[in-house]
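Standup notes
- HV: blocked on the assembly model, inputs below
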Amino acid sequence: MSLISLMGALEIGLIFALVALGVLISFRLLNFPDLTADGSFPLGGAVAAVLIAGGHDPWLACGLAAIAGAAAGWLTAWLNVRLGILQLLASILVMIALYSINLRIMGAPNIALIGLPTVFTPFISTVNDNAWLIQPAVLAVIVVLAKLLLDAFFASEAGLALRATGANPRMARAQGISTDRMTLAGMALSNALIALAGALYVQTQGGADISMGIGTIVVGLAAVIIGETLLPPRSLWLVTLATVLGALLYRLLIALALNADFIGLQAQDLNLITAVLVGLALVLPKIKAKLRNKQGGRTA
Amino acid sequence: MMRADNLFKTFNPGTPLENPVLRGLSLTIESGQFVTVIGSNGAGKSTFLNAISGDISPDSGSLFIDGQDVTRQTAWQRAGLVARVFQDPLAGTCEGLSIEENLALAMQRGQGRGLSRAVKASYREQFRAKLATLQLGLENRLGDRMGLLSGGQRQAVSLLMASLQPSRLLLLDEHTAALDPKTAAFVLQLTDRIVSENKLTALMVTHSMRQALDHGHRTVMLHQGRVVLDVSGEERSRMDVPDLLAMFEQTRGEKLDDDALLLG
């Protein structure tokens, strides 16, 4: 694998680290199985692409994309806590609705951003092409910032209330926490992160496409699950670190699998590889535990 | 002070599973009073407690805590007034969070939660001092996950959590029922201490008549969703379990007669 393709894998991995952090909040912390991601990721991309194509500041575009994502997550949570629609179903409804909304926002199935200023442009040299290095570097700074901010939030009173809401809602209410409000806020935060990832994605790819959201949730979940097998969940900052590393490792494994000519895999096999990787990540901890038990049995 | 007026609650109304649990339950508890509640299965003890805490909303009747009408308030809205310890040791704490994080959650009970650090340095000192009074060695395990603790330890911490912030009413829902006898005795002793030290108004549901008579100032018996017996003071201190049992059977007999009269 060449250096350029390695950096390309890192770049996508960093973007999906943001998605994975969002999925961590919904699936793991709030215990809310949420498929909105498949709609909120392209939503963020659509909002950012339209704004950038319209000549607006790319950072402003990222900010508005995140707000749009927050609204999508809030809506999913609202359907659940106010109207009592099953969590999974509420998120599927919003995801489907977003497909139409995204098309409306974009006005066409795709928008090209080639040659337009992005958040990366100020750092890229006009003399020699260093985008392959600058883009992952800028993304790394964004991801590290997001991780540290989330860590600080989860250690705050409100953050702790959010974690209690997912872990033990009855106890949370007995402590005076409005679990409904916490779910609404947490889901908004989760999808804001995912939409921000979508906004950054279109800027690295040179354009937005209506089908760019397909499988987002699976990739995000894969990263979370791989992260869980990497590091012990002793404290929350370790969990967020594991999630980021999981996203990076996942993209590296995908790149390796696609680059290894002798296996004969091609780009269209991506979803198959994802399924196999997630399957392995789910089974490995069980195998590990079984092996440990066997060893324990022998020494005892 | 807590006042329940004529509470009614029917589960699954209008279906074959219709179950009238509370049938005009009224009870007033004065400030600083520790009341024990007994009753057979289905008497409405848990439903009564859940109605006070706001976990369920009564069909009719009203509920006042400290003169405030809380009948239509949600559980989290009245959490500033009501503290509670659940029957299931797993229910009152978050096993995925550390001991100090659980205590920090209780430290903010009934208050707004902002973006400042949840576990403050000043809190830690307080937590350590409070945990030390339990004599379980937990004061050195602030960072340990709650899930590592035994049921008795978790119930003891739950009690501590309920007393971190002042409350108008402490609800104890058979909080020793899931513990072994020795641990149950320890948690009960701790309950007595915390209630008297903080001069709490408390309502303890128990399945044991012995416990009901040995703890608190007043004992109330529920039957078919109503208060059928209410003893306190001199009368109660002279009572023993067989007396209570006799009264229990008497009320049940009378109730049957009443029903027979109604049917006749």
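- HV (later): unblocked. Residues 270-299 of chain A form the longest helix (30 residues). Chain A has a mean pLDDT of 91.
- Next: hand off to the docking folks.
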